[in-house]
Design goal:
- The protein is an alpha+beta fold.
- The chain has one domain: Aspartate Aminotransferase, domain 1, CATH 3.90.1150.
- The chain has 5 helices and 5 strands; from the N terminus they run αβββββαααα.
- The chain has a 5-stranded antiparallel beta sheet with strand order 1-2-3-4-5.
- α1 runs parallel beside α3, α2 packs across α5 and α4 packs across α5.
- The longest helix is centred in the last third of the chain and has 20 residues.
- The protein is globular, with a radius of gyration of 15 Å.
């Protein structure tokens, strides 16, 4: 990666590449807006680290490239607690690191299709909370 990233982003990328063995599948950057997308793949998952309008996010997907889940949804699914819909990047990265094994199993294990359906349902419920 040629770009200089904030420390918290670099640490997460290092965790994913060095500690978990994921490899970069795609890296895109927009010079006009400063947006960045980095997609890593491994262990049956894809992880997307992105900067959109100056804010950093991390999302996880099974092998389905059209179904990405943010850390707030994954945290809600794992803990059963509806919390902050927009955690800081540091909170997102820490949750991913602390729950990596559970997330991998949830999205790649024998109940992955049910977990994906549950996460989609949680996404709809969150949209209703936000916009009603």
């Amino acid at each position: 990666m040629s770009e200089q990233f904030p420390t918290s982003v670099s640490l997460l990328l290092s965790f994913l590449e060095d500690d978990r063995g994921l490899s970069i599948e795609q890296e895109l950057a927009s010079q006009a807006f400063g947006d960045t997308i980095i997609v890593l793949r491994g262990q049956g998952l894809r992880v997307r680290v992105l900067r959109d309008r100056g804010r950093w996010f991390v999302e996880v997907s099974s092998e389905n490239p059209n179904q990405w889940f943010d850390m707030a949804l994954l945290k809600e699914q794992i803990t059963g607690h509806v919390g902050d819909d927009e955690p800081s990047f540091d909170e997102q990265a820490e949750f991913l690191r602390a729950n990596w094994k559970r997330i991998v199993e949830m999205l790649t294990g024998p109940t992955a299709s049910q977990a994906s359906a549950d996460l989609e349902q949680r996404r709809l419920e969150r949209a209703k909370r936000r916009y009603q």
